[in-house]
Amino acid sequence: MTTIRAAVARNFGTDLTIEEVELASPGEGQVEVVLDAVAICHSDIHFAEGAWGGGLPAVYGHEAVGRVTATGPGVRGIAEGARVLVTMLRACGHCGCCASGAPVYCETGYDRQAQSPISQNGAVVNHGLSTGAFAERVVVDQSQLAPLPEDIPATSACLLACGVITGVGAVVNTARVRPGETVVVIGAGGVGLNAIQGARIAGAARIVAVDMSAEKLAAAKEFGATDGILANAPEPWSALREIAPKGADAVFVTVGATPVYETALNYAGYRGRVFAVGMPHSGERAAWEPVMVAALGQKIEGSLLGEVVLKRDIPWMVELYRQGRLKLDELVSGTWTLEQINEAIADTKAGGARRNVIVF
User: Fold this and answer.
1) What burial letters (b/e) apply to 274-308, b meaning 16+ CB within 10 Å?
2) Quick check: 49 and 349 in contact, CB under 8 A?
């Protein structure tokens, strides 16, 4: 048992508090990692707001980089001192989804309350997003780690744990965008910019960013967008027909706004595919005309964490970064201390940040 500092959520929708908590020693198949950096993702913010429920108190945070300080029984291929990426992707490796190459949909449950390695004065603290990385150290399952080289700054590398793989992976792994296709990305925030990068890497002919902000549309072009459409224009999808008369082959909704989902099909052409990447709050509903989906042969499909396979996808993304073909450094909006985490969250919620990073 180790005493560490962590940002604790005690009530939904209130500021996090910096407190001392106890972290259990790693058990079977588990690894302890001392953290160098952790990014703030909108998923952390939504959980802290109570959008998807979960137990309290809790420690959130799930996009991290650090070094292995201890390993539990049964850990293989991970040595103390190794530099690693820490993700929320906990996979058993044996269920049907894991065995078929889709570990993000692992069917083996993990109780973030009952099985949490975090406690305080003998009471359980929820293991937020199976990671609890708004803290100086974490204990996670070995499946949640990927090795990292020394030449990528921690502030950039931590983004590979969620934001980058979610956007790039949705395009490359889920949609399997082909060279020459037309892609629309709705939302030019952190995940949206990475979907745009993924479309560029995949060879899309036209990559159209859609956002409420002209500033974000300009940034999208830096990441590979060929065109931009302001979402606050009347029927903004009509502007797409001037760019791509047949409509989009693939549309990626990277924001968690239900009204956006209701209009996403308007951007798709015949046999167009719409991919749900951004996550609205639990209980929200979207409506569309089933007859049009059937008549145009369109498809709606979800994509969780870019359907990433860590051992397969992190090495090639690292190589793309080294070649200058995948932007990571440019995604970092600012760095903050753990004590400044509420300021960093507020800055993220304001909408201008790509990714804010807590540095230990």
Assistant:
1) bbbbbbbeeeeebebeeeebeeeebebeebbbbbb
2) no
CATH number at residue 109: 3.90.180.10
Report the C-alpha gap between 344 and 7 in whole angstroms.
12
Q: Strand, helix or coil at 123?
A: strand
Place of tokens 């993304």: 317
Indicate the pairing of strand 58-59 with strand 227-230: unpaired
What confidence tens digit (pLDDT) does each residue in 146-159 have? 999 999 999 999 99
Spell out, as residue ranges, where the chain has pLDDT lower than 70: none
Could you report the per-residue pLDDT of 112-151, keeping only the tens digit for each?
999 999 999 999 999 999 999 999 999 999 999 999 999 9
Domain-embedded: residue 84: yes
Residues contacting 259, CB < 8 A, separation 6+: 286
Rounded distance, CA 145 to CA 127, Å?
Answer: 16
> How many domains is the chain built from?
2
CA–CA separation, 304 and 296 (whole Å): 25
Residue type, 224: G
CA–CA–CA angle 144, 165, 323 (5° rounding): 110
- Token digits of residue 21: 């908590």
- The range of the structural domain enclosing residue 204 comes to 166-304
The crossing angle, in degrees rounded to 10, of helices 341-349 and 42-49 is 100
Tokens for 192? 């949206």
Query: What's the distance, CA 234 to chain centroid?
Result: 30
